[in-house]
Input
Amino acid sequence: MIDTVVLSIPKNMFTVLRPELFQPNCEPLLNYQNYRGRGLVKAIQNPSKQDVVEKNYKPRLTLENRPSKFGRSVTLRVEFSAPKLLWGNNFDELNGSDFLNVSLTLISKLGSMGVVVTLGQLWNVPVSAIHYSKNIILDDFTSVSMILDEIYKTDISYRLDSNTKDYRNEGHCIKFHANSHEIVFYDKLKDLEQASISEKRSIEKHNDCQMDIFQVLDKIKKPFEVLRMEIRLGNRQKIRHLLKSLAVDKELTFANLFNISLAKKVLKYYWEKIDDGIAFFQINAKSPIDLIEAIKKRHPNIKYGQLLKILGLITLIQEVGVRRTRGVLGFTKNGSCGWYRLKKDLKEINDLKTMDKYHSISKISHALNEFTPLRLSDYELNLNKM
Output
């Protein structure tokens, strides 16, 4: 689904009626020539303290006057969470039919902030960053932390720097980070609990508007956990490159990128890369003797040296994960031939019996294939029937 969107609106597509609402007053910034010879100059307008108290969610605005190859340019950066804008929370997810309501609500909110944008202009505004996400319900005693632990061990490309400091909040979040994008998995309920203590402790920010969600969660039958997956695309170059990989030919406008079908493609694209790495964890290695016998039964002509190599590699990977295993063995560079020979050996025996804990991982694949928008009301207890 679609969550955070960052729009970069050029000067000819918006009008500022109340420049004094920006800090500082943005009227001088609207004139291209006032800052000739200077670098970036900006004014901001964020939700007021009263807005926060009243849970009146508003976008965050930054007006920028900067040098460009044509002299100077003026743009209005508008950052917002689409579901929070519409419903005040991002547990409930949007679908394609919500786009008009999101657009009209955004226009109304911008109007209250002294900025005028028409509907036609808004739909053609360039998008500079966008987050696609999915909330995945776990209602069968599967824990989010168990799934995160397995994801963390997977064979994620070394081109995606994973920072172990971001495996935090007692194992309730894992973040794979690169300069232009992030892949984030976290426990949505635990994160909201952290936010109720301090916003600095939570992965997601600007949670004030959705704290009332605890009243809804209390009415939901347990067990009930929520795993959240986010793909955060941080700039236009990355978005354009990803669309090319997905064979999608679209201009990077608000109307084009606010697309549920595209969101599904993006999330599945990244998840399939991760899920392929989890293949190592499908093999039942609880007993080394049983594993040896299973391999010999399926592959009776396997050499003992090969057998022991595979046994040791599977055991090590399942204990410490792929990335650490690669580091210990010295295969830290992309394209390491020795590592890919080992992977080939493992793929030849990946038809062995899978472990039970892998089936919890498959819930993510199922949720992304179904791609049904989450509505918390669907999980509320009907007290009249009890």
